[in-house]
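Milestone M4 deliverable, item 7.
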Amino acid sequence: MNIRPPNRITHTYTQRLIAPPAGVFPLLCPVREADWIEGWNPLLVLSVSGLAEPDCVFVTDARPYDAIWYVTRHEPERWFVEMIKVTPEVTACKLTIRLRAAGEGSEADVTYSHTSLGPQGDLFIATFTAEFYVQFMREWEQRMNHYLRHGEALQTES
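Output delivered:
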């Protein structure tokens, strides 16, 4: 048995979004993300309702193996969602998103906690710096706000 301390990194960022939580929460879904993230296209979504729900499973393209996501908590009445993402031989990740009203819009506390599953995960964690995370979260925030403002995904310049 191989038991050792985890190589783990956790970052949280608070996004400021221009719509109230009730308008944002439905977009935190593997299907609805295609509305606001250019190029988002899960390979498989297993869902009774066709949208995010407890026990929804979806698969996204990743390297070296596709990533498997599992929605462990989906609480629209509390504006809270939690997912586990496993990229075999790389990382196991817990993602939590908690929304709250803030003025006419909302704030979203987004936390990613990655645990390495081996050498490739160690390399990933070394690059998942606070600076990288802030940039990642600001891009996500910009994309979400663009969609909330214009009703279409932000297109990247070629």
